[in-house]
Amino acid sequence: MVFPILDILLALVEKICVIVVIAYLITRTKYFREILDKKFTLKNRAILILIFGAVSIFGTYSGIEVFGAIANVRDLAPMIAGLIGGPVIGLGAGLIGGIHRYFLEGFTCVPCSLATVLAGLFGGSLYLLRKGKFIGVLGAVLFAALMESFHMTLTLLLARPYSEAVMVVEEVSIPMIFSNSLGMFIFAFIISNLIKERETAEERDKYFDELERKRYELKMAHDIQQSFLPDAIPLLKGFELAALNLPAKEVGGDFYDFIPISEDKIGVTIADVSGKGVPAALFMALSRTIVRANATRSPDVVGVIQDANRLITADAKSGMFVTLFYAILDLREKTLTYVNAGHNPPVMFKGKTGELIMLRAKGIALGAMEDIELEERKILLKGGDMVVFYTDGVTEAEDEKERQFGEERLFKTIKENHNLSANDMIEKIKEAVLSFCGKQPQFDDITLMVLKAE
Questions:
Q1: Residue 428: Cβ-neighbour burial (10 angstroms; 0-12, 13-18, 19+)
Q2: What pLDDT, on a 0 to 100 scale, did the predictor assign at position 1?
Q3: CB 62 within 8 A of CB 10
Q4: pLDDT band at 221 (very low <50, low <70, confident <90, very high)
Q5: What is the CATH number that goes with domain 228-453?
Q6: pLDDT for 345
Q7: What are the residue ranges spanned by the domains of the chain?
Q8: What are the tens digits of pLDDT across the range 83-109?
Q9: What distance lies between CA 315 and its chain's CA centroid?
Q10: Could you give the CA distance from residue 304 to residue 297 in angstroms, rounded to a whole number?
C-alpha cells in the first residue's frame, strides 16, 4: 500500500503535538533545570536519559509503517537530550531508543537504530563544541534537518534490498525531515524561552540584591552621619543656637558641630563633604574628628584648620574634599572669629539696620592641597543680630522646573522672619525650601545652623 506523503506528514505532526506536551512537562522538572544550570549529578543524568529514552520509544510506537519500515520521530528525543545535556545524556537516550528499535526488526532496523544512537551522540558533540551553550532555535532546527537527512542516507547505504530502501526513503524522507524539524523547532523554542526566563529572573535577582545593598549602604551612611552630629544644642549665655540636618535619600556628608574651647568660648563649624553615600559619610566622620581634636587644643582658628587640612589631605586618597566654615564664638566679648575654607559664606542679619552681610573670607576646601592660606576675620554681634550658616543643599535645592532655591529666596526668608527665635528661623527656612521644591525629590542634604544674639 502506498502512503501519500501528505498523509504521513499529517500523521507525524499529530504525534509531534503529543511529544511537545511531554517536552513542556520535562522542561518544568527540577532535573531539567539542574542540567540547564550545568549541575550534573548521577541521579539527574540517569533520570533524563530514561525520560528521553522513553520519549524516543514513544516516537517509534507512534510511527507509521511504510513498506516494512517505520516513519517516525524517534530521533527527536536523543537529539534534544544531546543538545541540552551533552554526550552522556544524548548517547544514553539514543541507546535506549536505538536498541528498542533494533529488536523490532525489519530490513531497516540497523540503519534506523544506528541513526538514533548517532542522533544523541552528535547532539552531545554540538553541546561540547558550544561549551554547554544551547545552540538556539535556528541551529537546532538545522541540526534536526541534517540529522534526518543523514538517517535517510544511512538507510540507503545499509538497508537491503536496496530497491525497497529507495522506496522507503522516497516516501518517508520529506515527512520525517519536516516533522522532526518541526518538533525540534517547538522544543528548541520552549528551551530558549526557559533560558531567557531564567536569565531574566537572574538579572532581576541581581537587580534586587544590588538595590538591597544600596539601601543598606544608604542606611549605613545615614547612621554614620547622624551618629557624628551633636546629641544636643548647647545653651549659651546671651545667645540662641539651633541646628538642623535633613539628609537626602542619597546621603551626603554634611555636618555641623559645637566644640567647647574654654569656659567663655565655643567653636562652631558647618561643613559639606564632596560625594555621596558611605564614602562621603566616612570622610565626613574623619574630617569632623580631626577638626574637633585640633580645635579643643587651640584657640587659633587659622592654625586649627590648617593643621586639620594637612591631616585630611594625607588621608584624602580618593580625591574627596570638604568645604568648611569654622568660627570661635566669644561669649564674653560677643565676637565671632572665623575662617572659611571654600564653604558657602554664612549670612549675618544686622538687627539694628536690617542689613545683610556675607561672612566671606579667603580660603579653599580642605583636602585639595597640603598647604593652604586662610584669612581670619572677626565680627561683633549685637542684640538682634542673627547669623545663618547653611550648606549648598539649601540654595541649590531645585523645583520641578529645575530652578534653584538660590540665595535671593534665602535672604528674603531671613529678612521677613528676623524677629523669630533661632529654632523658628530654621523651621521657616526649611518650610520655604521644601515648599519651593514641591514634589521634586531632595537630592542633597539640607543643613542649617542659626546663631542669634539676645
A1: middle
A2: 40
A3: no
A4: low
A5: 3.60.40.10
A6: 97
A7: 5-205, 228-453
A8: 999 999 999 999 999 999 999 988 999
A9: 30
A10: 8
Query: Cα–Cα distance between 185 and 292 in angstroms, integer?
Result: 72
Q: Is 157 left (phi over 0), alpha (psi -120 to 50) or beta?
A: alpha
H/E/C letters for each residue in 283-319?
A: HHHHHHHHHHHHHCCCCCHHHHHHHHHHHHHHHCCCC
Cell 516516537 maps to which residue? 59
Angle formed by the axes of helices 76-85 and 5-27, nearest 10°: 30
Q: What are the grid coordinates assigned to 305, written together?
A: 584648620
- Characterise 2 by phi-psi region: left (phi > 0), alpha (psi -120 to 50), beta (else): beta
Nearest by Cα to 411 from 424, 434, 394: 394
Query: Rounded to whole angstroms, how far apart are CA atoms 280 and 319?
Result: 11
Using the structure block, give the residue that is written with the C-alpha cell 547532539. 123
Grid coordinates belonging to 437: 521644591
* 389-to-10, 34, 255, 321, 431 alpha-carbon distances in Å: 85, 62, 11, 19, 16
pLDDT for 186 equals 86
Tens-digit pLDDT profile for residues 155-188: 999 999 999 889 888 888 888 888 888 889 888 9
Residues 6+ apart with CB under 8 A from 266: 234, 236, 258, 259, 260, 328, 329, 331
Check: CB of residue 327 under 8 Å from CB of residue 345: no
| Number of Cβ within a 10 Å radius of residue 10 | 12
β-bridge pairing 253-262 and 265-273: antiparallel
Cα–Cα dist 262/427, whole Å: 30
Segment 380-409, tens digit of pLDDT: 999 999 999 999 999 999 988 889 999 999
Residue 163 host element (H or E): helix 162-227
Which cell is 159 given? 538497508
Whole-number Å distance between alpha carbons of 299 and 261: 7
**What percent of the residues of the chain are helix, what percent strand, and what percent coil, each to the nearest 5?**
55, 15, 30
Q: Report the percent of the chain where pLDDT is more than 90.
A: 58
Q: Is the separation of the CB atoms in 326 and 312 below 8 Å?
A: no
pLDDT at 250: 62
> Are 91 and 121 contacting, i.e. CB atoms less than 8 angstroms apart?
yes
Residues in the chain: 454
Q: Which amino acid would we find at residue 361?
A: A
Partners of 336 in the β-ladder: 329, 379
Residue 282 confidence (pLDDT) above 90: no
DSSP state of 382: -
> For the packed helices 87-102 and 42-61, what is the interaxial angle rounded to 10 degrees?
40
5-205: CATH topology: Arp2/3 complex 21 kDa subunit ARPC3 (1.10.1760)
